[in-house]
Amino acid sequence: MQNTADKIKNAYRSSMYIHLAVMGTLLVYIAVVELIGTRFSAYAIRASYLSSLRYIFYGITIVVIFIIRRLQSAFKLKPRIGRMERSLNRMLKVSVITSILCEIPAVLGLVYFFLKGVKRDFYYLIILSAVLLLLYFPKYAKWQPFAERENRVED
């Protein structure tokens, strides 16, 4: 049978590895843009209606930031006796959803690059995505109260 502290550490590590994998995809996006950027930008669509798409993507990014903040504040978990498994699963889900939401600006920047061929907006959005990923990196201090609470119960 696995110790509760080990369960908490494993859940934290899982969330951390998922977050790091999402951070790694940002590097893949940059590599894709740089590899095909010079060849692709000559064939990109130059339609004027796509310029407004840029502002729509920035607007979606702002909405995503508010969703992330709301998600983090809505799921402030307090450890409860006997509900550690459920709370850990919930916290892991919130961490994974936050990681995926942090990646959305980078994906929007990549889509905009493929449509318009503009690297500048891609880099703005990928930097914003990287900042979000760094700000919402899983911290063990948020997971530690579960271990402390369970240790008090077991004693």
Low-pLDDT residue intervals, each spanning 5 or more residues: none
Overall body shape: elongated
Give the proportion of residues in helices. over 70%
Would you report the number of β strands?
0
Taking all Cα atoms into account, the compactness measure Rg is 20 Å
Q: Main β-sheet: number of strands, strand sense, barrel status? A: none
State the separation between the terminal residues, measured CA to CA: 17 Å
Summing up helix and strand content along with how strands pair, one would put the structural category as: mainly alpha
SSE layout:
Blueprint: H1 4-40, H2 51-74, H3 84-116, H4 119-135, H5 140-154
